[in-house]
Every structure is written in structure tokens, then in C-alpha cells.
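Subject: Sanity check before I submit

Could someone independently write out the C-alpha cells for this chain? I want to compare against mine line by line before I put it in a report. The sequence has 338 residues.
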Amino acid sequence: MKHSRIRIAAVAAALLAGTLASLSAHAADWKPTRPINLIVPWAAGGSTDQVTRATAAELEPVLGQKIVVVNQPGASGSLGTKSALEAPKDGYTWTAGAAQDLGAYETLGLLKTRITDWNLFLNVANVSVISVNADAPYKTVQELLAAMKAKPGAISVATAGVTSAGHNAMEAVARATGVTYKHVTYDGGNPAVVATVAGETVVTTQLAVEQADMIRGKRLRPLAVVGNKPLQLEGYGTIPPLSDAVPGFSAPINYFGIFIPKGVPPEVIATLEKAWQTTISKSEALKKYAQSRGALFAPLYGAEAQKAVFPAVQANAWLMYESKKATISPDTVGIPKP
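---
Independent answer below. Compare away.
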């Protein structure tokens, strides 16, 4: 009788394993029957818009459907993100951006959502660069910082708004050096860069991918990478790290990607995970994009992606809170102090 029970249990276990394998195989077979709406919550031409469109082009042949990229800027990226969060959980509405922004919305009181509420599909990591208008008198970052200290709050810095990569970078610089500045906000990274090129502002601290063409064209003068490693920009050369001028300065990696709210059918996520394994991780187009724009190719998803983004989420949320840009303490919304 005992052996009979063991045999029955073994058969049941085998059947269960077979069923799970079958379900897993089926889960990766999602074939969308209509176009997918991919919301970019920032203006056209910026860092999120650039890499999202490049990634969508790689995914369309895999999914057999058009991915419609829609720009919906506003409220530091939270407006478009909210649209994706509140859309039907059928897998047909995604959003995109920087994970560190997504993870700070609740702390800022902009949107009640946490990084763990989302499935993350990362494509690149970006770095911010301190650049000035080509006609500005500052030749080094030391000269710029000295001027900011001499004229507190007078030198204008263009960013894509509170929580944007550019604003976070400038806040980190201000915190490390004690300088103050005049913050001028725009609807995206590209408009912020263009404003600095046009002379509306003196400085921009937006991402290298947004500044690359203007740096190569000598319309912007890059002074330093907001980090502790130099950046090799194709067609320009080496941009030194801020840590050369501010010893000990460092900044966590700023990952970007496509985000899908949890609660969608599991086959949607399984299909995207398979696409990241087989297509995105081997994409020559995305590798070339990263190399030419001064970004890091970083195709991650799942638990690995959540782990990778958390240091930047943590640093960003606490930076916003301690600089009084956020009113909700991060440790009350699942983000302990680093």
C-alpha cells in the first residue's frame, strides 16, 4: 500500500511538472491582436524618447504588432506614467523612462506607486554631463563651481524638471559642493538642452545621450560627467568625471527601460522576458545607439532589474526628501535610507 502511494505521488508530481512546463511554454506565446500603446512621459527627442523608439523598433517584428509611441509629458513624468498605471491591465499599455524617477513619485506625492508595482525591462544606463553654452566663459567645472559659489542662485541650469535625471544630477552636485543655482525647467531633456544651446540658460545637466550631438557640434562645452568615471563620447573624446574636481564624488547608475504595471496577464510578461533574452540582449541597433550616445547597454529584466535599479531609486528619493523637494519620507514608502 505504501509503495502504491509513492507511485501515485510520483505520477502526480510528473503530471504537475508537465502541466507547469506546458503552461510556461504557452505563457511565452502571447501574440497581441492589436497595436500596443507605449507612453513616453517626456517630450519628443529626449533620452527616454530616443531609446524607447529604438527598443520598440526591435520588438515589433518579435510581437508581430505595431508599437505606437505616444509622448505625454507633464508633472515630472508622472502624468504619462499614471495613464499607464490606470489603463486596463490587458498588456496593451506600457510606459517608459528612468527607473529612479518611477521609484520617487510616491515620495514626491505625485503618484501612489512604487518600483515594485512594475515589471521592469531595462535597455540602457545613462550618465549626466555638466555642460555650458558654447559662449559661456567657463572652461572647466572648477571655474563653473567657483562662479556658482560667488553668485549664489544666479547661474541658470536647464533640466527636464523635478525628479528628471538632469535635476537629480544638479541637486547631487549642489549637495556635494554647497553651491546654489537658478533652476529652469522644461518638458523634457531635449528642450532643456536646446535652451542651453540657444543661450536661454547657461548650464544643463541633462544626460549625455541628449547632449551628444550638440557636444560634437561644439554647441555645448562639456565640463564633467556627474560621476566618478570618465565618459568616452564617440566623435568628441573624453569627458572627465566630477570626482576629479570633487574628490570622493560618486553617483549610482541611472537605468532606463520599458515598464509594464503588475497585474497584466502572465503571458505578456513571459513573452517580453523571452524577447529580452533572445532579441534585446543581442540587439546591434541598441548597442550602436548606446556607443554613439554615451550610454551603457544594459538589457536586464525581472528580479535582476529590480536589484540593479534600487540604489538609484534609493539615492534619488532621499535626495529629493532631504533637499525638501519631497514631503513624504522615503522610509515610510518602502525605501530605507542608504
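---
OP: Matches mine. For the report I'm noting this point. Residues 2-27 form the longest helix (26 residues).
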